[in-house]
Design a protein that fits this description.
CATH class: Alpha Beta
Largest sheet: 3 strands, antiparallel
Number of domains: 1
CATH superfamily: 7,8-Dihydro-6-hydroxymethylpterin-pyrophosphokinase HPPK
Number of strands: 9
Distance between the termini: 31 Å
Shape: globular
Strand content: 15-25%
């Protein structure tokens, strides 16, 4: 909801300010139909690779605080929202707590997650699958999810790579 691009830029700016954390790479932006609750505007999706000294649960807490700062409210599961930041992977860590499951439990089902991840690292392996190969297989399934490149990596993060 709102200015999707500006919200992505704001989220990335906040991520760059996290302690002991550096944004290493950011994917292009992709537009997709909404997932779960379909009566809403299309989503913009992307992925960011970060290097951090924060533990996984600490990083997740910081991401949730960024969502709160940007006006996220939780009313309808998968419903309209201003921003949604997910912790998908954390090195080779696997965990399942009440607050965090790593790798993200639906990562291999969602092309809108796999496509930006493959752009960052197509040889990345998740749950024993190579992201690029699994993405190709998913894109051939009937009723496939359509992921359309919307634009290049946000300009708001260019200074990260300077």
């Amino acid at each position: 909801m709102g200015d999707r691009y500006a919200l992505l830029c704001a989220a990335l700016t906040h991520m760059r300010q996290l302690p002991q954390t550096q944004v290493i790479a950011v994917s292009s932006i992709y537009e997709t139909a909404p997932w779960g609750y379909e009566e809403q505007a299309p989503f913009l999706n992307g992925a960011a690779q970060v290097r951090t000294e924060l533990p996984p649960d600490g990083l997740l807490r910081r991401l949730l605080k960024i969502e709160d700062r940007l006006g996220r409210t939780r009313t309808v599961r998968w419903g309209p929202r201003r921003i949604d930041l997910d912790l998908l992977l954390y090195d080779d860590v696997t965990c399942a707590t009440a607050d965090l499951i790593l790798p993200h439990p639906r990562i291999t089902e969602r092309l809108f997650v796999l496509v930006p991840l493959a752009e960052l690292d197509g040889d990345l392996r998740v749950a024993g699958l190579t992201v690029r190969k699994h993405m190709a297989a998913l894109s051939q399934e009937p009723g496939k999810q359509v992921v359309r490149r919307w634009g290049p990596p946000p300009k708001c993060v260019d200074s990260v790579f300077a």
